[in-house]
Automatic annotation (TrEMBL):
Organism: Frondihabitans sucicola
Pfam families, alphabetized: ABC_tran (PF00005)
Keyword Lipid metabolism: no
Name this protein carries in UniProt: Phosphate-import ATP-binding protein PhnC
Record NCBIfam families: ABC_phnC
GO molecular function, one term: ATP binding
Domain ABC transporter: 10-253
């Protein structure tokens, strides 16, 4: 974490979200400091994506409040929400690039919120933005791929393009929803290292959901564990071991559920290994 910057950038108080009778989040309190890298961990369905979507103003709370970049998210008009979202970038498990567009044009679309009107083709973007986009591609190590169609890139490369696109927003917060869930272990490390480096260099605040405890321990400043929509763990990663994370889950988790976590991790790692071998 950037030691000089510790002012809260996200403050969530008593956040509860219900979808019909299903309670996705329950009484979540969370404060994130500027420049912090926070990892959300939890079983499938524990509420990680729903929490990220609230921070981005894509969901409105059933109860509670969210203060993001000094704005009370749940009170904002659609126009103000769009303005907030332009300062909060998001990357996803499936990258969400436009496959038929070049890598450079995909990156440029990250600047659309700063432009008026639609753009079609790299040359319809101002030269300063093209230069900026190429700079971001250089930063993520993909400058030589600028004019290739994005669908021709590997998963790890596509996620790095998505990161470059996110940087075009000049964001203050990067939300990452399982950014490495579709990647092999080596690409996962590479993407997490890149996110970590950018956060350190730019003082960017990162909130990232992951399934892999090892990655969370390696790349996060802090781990927030969710279970059935409740925060059951919130601790700095410094000095924390994997078994301690599992223990903390264990203390609040019946043995069968702890086994489910381990099975989920084992299955995921098997699938990734098979994917890498294919
Ligand atoms: N739009 C929605 N409508 C109804 N239920 C939803 C909606 N979005 C999420 N949920 C429910 O909220 C709960 C939390 O889901 P969420 O996607 O946030 O979990 P998650 O921890 O991100 O899971 P995963 O790791 O599988 O992505 C789940 O029970 C899910 O079915």
């Amino acid at each position: 974490m950037n030691g000089t910057a510790t002012a809260p950038i996200v403050t969530i108080s008593g956040l509860t979200k219900r979808f019909g009778s299903n309670r996705a989040l329950h009484d979540v309190d969370l404060t994130v400091a500027r420049g912090e890298v926070v990892v959300l961990l939890g079983l499938s369905g524990s509420g990680k994506s729903t929490l990220l979507r609230h921070i981005d103003g894509l969901e409105s709370p059933s109860e509670g409040s969210l203060d993001v970049l000094g704005e009370r998210v749940e009170t904002l008009s659609q126009k103000s929400l769009r303005s907030l979202r332009s300062r909060v970038a998001m990357i996803f498990q499936q990258f969400e690039l436009v496959p038929s567009l070049t890598v450079l044009e995909n990156v440029l679309t990250g600047a659309l919120s700063r432009l008026s009107g639609p753009r079609l083709g790299v040359w319809t973007y101002p030269r300063a933005l093209r230069r900026q986009a190429l700079g971001h591609l250089d930063r993520v190590g993909l400058l030589e791929k600028a004019y290739e169609r994005s669908e021709l890139l590997s998963g790890g490369q596509q996620q790095r393009v998505a990161i470059a696109r996110a940087l075009m927003q000049e964001p203050q917060i990067l939300l990452a929803d399982e950014p490495v869930a579709s990647l092999d272990p080596e690409s996962s490390e590479q993407v997490m290292r890149l996110i970590r480096e950018i956060a350190a260099d730019d003082g960017l605040t990162v909130i990232c959901s992951l399934h892999q405890v090892d990655l969370a321990l390696g790349w996060g400043d802090r781990i927030v564990g969710l279970r059935h929509g409740e925060v059951v763990l919130d601790t700095p990663t410094d000095g924390l071991t994997k078994s301690q994370v599992m223990e903390v889950y264990g203390r609040v988790t019946p043995t069968a559920e702890l086994r489910a976590i381990e099975t989920e991790l084992a299955t995921e790692s098997l699938l990734l290994t098979r994917g890498a071998e294919a």
